[in-house]
Amino acid sequence: MKTTIKIGIVGLGRIGKNHARNLAQRVRGAELIAGSSPVAAEREWAGKELGITRLYENMESLLADKDVDAVWLATPTSLHAEQIVSALEAGKHVFCEKPLALTEAECERVLAAADKYASQTVMIGFMRRYDPAYVEAKRLLNNGDLGRLFRLHCASLDAIDTNGFFVDFAPTSGGLFLDCSIHDIDVALWMTDGAKPVSVSATGIRAMYPGLAACNDVDTATATVLFENDILATFHASRTSHHGDETSLQLVGTDASLALGVGGTPVSEVSVQKGNANHSDRVVDFFGRFEQAFVLEAQAFVDAISSGDTLRGRLLEAQAATRIGVAMREALEQQKIVNFDN
Ligand SMILES: NC(=O)c1ccc[n+]([C@@H]2O[C@H](COP(=O)([O-])OP(=O)(O)OC[C@H]3O[C@@H](n4cnc5c(N)ncnc54)[C@H](O)[C@@H]3O)[C@@H](O)[C@H]2O)c1
Which residue from 14, 90, 215, 259 has the highest number of Cβ atoms inside 10 Å of its Cβ? Predict the structure, then answer.
């Protein structure tokens, strides 16, 4: 097995720069040797800040670089499926930011390519799985501290954007549920060991960004999912948080409940609640909140390649998450309950 995995990153925007810094400086066994972006200023940034010399205007040129072992995609969501397939066809391992894709058909296409190129690793960027607080929540749950889990509530709240980013970003994002709640859906699948969804309903509004109407998106929404074994989950997402970014999880079992990151509670700690919860008003943005998780996620990708682990089980979970996200969008747009045919 290779000891150094040579990586080429595609997309050097908001999250791409964050990943590029980590890959260049903080991941054992990784070497960031190439980058690609159609934006000249982003390529210049990678050259100046990180000393990358192989900088390509398009992904095809990066894929043709024989020294690149693995491709790291931090590109608009609408491109994910197509780019994952191209990278696999070029013989590369692939990391791709969430979500896997925007439709079930696109997911199938990626899974078919992954089957064909069966020795290559594919990982989707659900970094909460590497966050120590979420890991601790899962440990407590597995340990039986909560009893039988029957209720989850997840919230992903973005600080208010005054620069128009959310409106510009929306047309390629898949909408609020596939963009934001997809992390929480993945967490729910993780916490429930892959429970199958039974039905979904959803409601949403445009409270602060009328421009989202152009792509029929909303800025505040809640979806309710009934999972098998009577597990009820709610997913709240919003771009309108006055107190800043919030990523929170509440689990309720027959013996105890657990809360993480709720309403500005200390973000890196888990509090198991049997009486009153304690709160503080400390809030950071999501890059800061998940700084460690992003590094651990990158390390896990590199380690998986080094050890020959293709992470196929995780790819199937990413497909399951997209399926639920698509159903949420359908429930919202058509104002109907979507039942799953399991
Ligand atoms: N894990 C997380 O918490 C998290 C957070 C933010 C974004 N994301 C995901 O990361 C992805 C990128 O989001 P972002 O906020 O960085 O967006 P962004 O718009 O800031 O960056 C997108 C990048 O892709 C490049 N790009 C555009 N078209 C391209 C093409 N055809 N080929 C190659 N590169 C192209 C752009 O130049 C830019 O560098 C999205 O899928 C998003 O869902 C994940």
Answer: 259
pLDDT tens per residue, range 227-242: 999 999 999 999 998 8
Q: Is 170 close to ligand 1, i.e. is its CB under 6 Å away? A: no
Structure tokens at 27: 């991941």
Measured at the CA of 56, the angle between CA 55 and CA 59, to 5 degrees, comes to 135
When pLDDT is averaged across residues 144-163 and rounded to a whole number, the result is 94
Q: For 194, how many CA atoms within 13 A lie in the half-sphere containing its CB? A: 9
48-69 residue pLDDT tens = 999 999 999 999 999 999 999 9
The response to whether residue 249 sits with its C-beta less than 6 Å from ligand 1 reads no
Q: State which CATH number among 3.30.360.10, 3.40.50.620, 3.90.420.10, 3.40.50.150 fits the domain covering 129-289+323-339.
A: 3.30.360.10
Please tell me the distance from the alpha carbon of residue 9 to that of residue 1, in angstroms, as a whole number: 22
Cα of 180 vs centre of ligand 1, distance in Å, is 14
- For the domain bounded by 5-127+293-309, which CATH number is listed? 3.40.50.720
